[in-house]
Write a structure and sequence with these properties.
alpha+beta, Glutaredoxin, four-stranded mixed sheet, 4 helices
């Protein structure tokens, strides 16, 4: 029994931190939002990134969710905001295409995990 408890405790400690979420702020009629949904949307939940930061879609004109502290005002759609424990880690403003999106999201997740050594990513 003690061995089982010890294994459970080690698995709990080794598990990645939870609570990250990728907020996608969008609006009706946004062609770049539609492009993201066509190119990335179906696969996103099945990717490592999607498991580490599940997507939550939000209307940019709706009231902000409670318990989320965002940085500068949101003006363009889509805007992707990575949050952890209710605080903004970083954001991607606009949809620059598949290749750039995955790279930029990877930078945000690395920053969240404390693995970024290049300083903050360039403004988006």
């Amino acid at each position: 029994m003690l061995r089982l408890i010890a294994v459970f405790w080690l698995l709990l400690i080794a598990a990645p931190s939870r609570g990250a979420e990728l907020l996608m702020f969008e609006e009706r009629g946004c062609p770049w939002c539609a492009r993201w949904h066509a190119e990335i949307g179906p696969a996103y939940p099945n990717t490592d990134e999607g498991r580490r930061a599940p997507l939550r879609r939000l209307d940019i004109h709706a009231p902000r969710p409670e318990g989320i502290a965002l940085g500068p005002p949101l003006r363009l759609t889509p805007t992707f905001v990575l949050v952890e424990r209710g605080r903004e880690v970083g954001r991607i403003t606009g949809y620059p295409g598949q290749d750039f999106f995955w790279g930029l999201l990877g930078e945000l997740l690395a920053r969240r995990d404390g693995k970024s050594h290049d300083g903050p990513p360039p403004p988006h």
